[in-house]
Design a protein that fits this description.
Pfam families: DHDPS. The chain is of the alpha/beta class. It has helices at 3-16, 37-46, 60-69, 85-91, 99-103, 105-117, 120-137, 141-153, 174-192, and strands at 21-25, 50-55, 76-79, 95-96. It folds into 2 domains: 1-98, Alpha-Beta Barrel (TIM Barrel), CATH 3.20.20; 99-184, no CATH class.
């Protein structure tokens, strides 16, 4: 796997797709393959059907390079983890596509509001809570995310598709549950104040 092979793959998929596509860079699910900023920029400039990227790699420098190179185009860059949402906004992210945003979407919107109003201290305080919750969320997997949603919001179950297994909130350690409970409580407060 090298840059030219990866770029050809994305170019071929985008050229044959009826829908626009996002490049998804997530080393954890691709055997460590990391798509470079150079490749993302080349792909965006060479194929109009490639309209954005989700960077779960956490590389804010990469996000900054892509954002600055493609500024003013119809290409959107998204951070892929709540862990670096605020730094990604500063680097030019158009938003976020992240697992934790499925659990506490209003809290993510609040970080964005603070950032846009220039209230960085308040944004940093919420970002810190998101970072701690996001870190623990990485330890529970998809079934754990589903169990948390089921417990706090009353829909779904902690049942994952095979081979992921099943879990419940009771099976998760307090070390994991505490930072998640904190952001869920804040989310619910934001819902009451809406």
């Amino acid at each position: 796997m090298n840059a030219s092979v990866i770029e050809k793959f994305f170019h071929d998929v985008a050229s044959q797709s009826d829908l626009p596509i996002l490049i998804y860079n997530f080393l954890g699910v691709t055997g460590g393959i990391d798509i470079s900023s150079d490749s993302i920029i080349r792909l965006a400039q060479s194929n109009p059907n490639i309209v954005g990227c989700k960077l779960t790699c956490g590389n804010v420098g990469k996000l900054q390079r892509v954002s600055s190179a493609l500024s003013g185009t119809s290409f959107a860059i998204f951070s892929g983890k709540s862990d670096f949402f605020l730094p990604a906004l500063v680097a030019g992210s158009n938003g976020i596509i992240a697992a934790l945003a499925n659990i506490v979407p209003k809290l993510h919107v609040e970080v964005l509001r603070y950032y846009k109003k220039g209230e960085l201290r308040a944004a940093q305080e919420l970002q810190s809570k998101l970072s701690h919750a996001d870190w623990t969320l990485t330890k529970v997997g998809i079934a754990g995310v589903k169990a948390i949603v089921s417990h706090h919001f009353g829909y779904g179950t902690g049942r994952g598709r095979r081979p992921l297994g099943n879990t419940t909130i009771m099976a998760l350690s307090q070390e994991i549950v505490a930072p998640l409970n904190e952001v869920v409580d804040l989310e619910k407060l934001l819902g009451e104040n809406s």
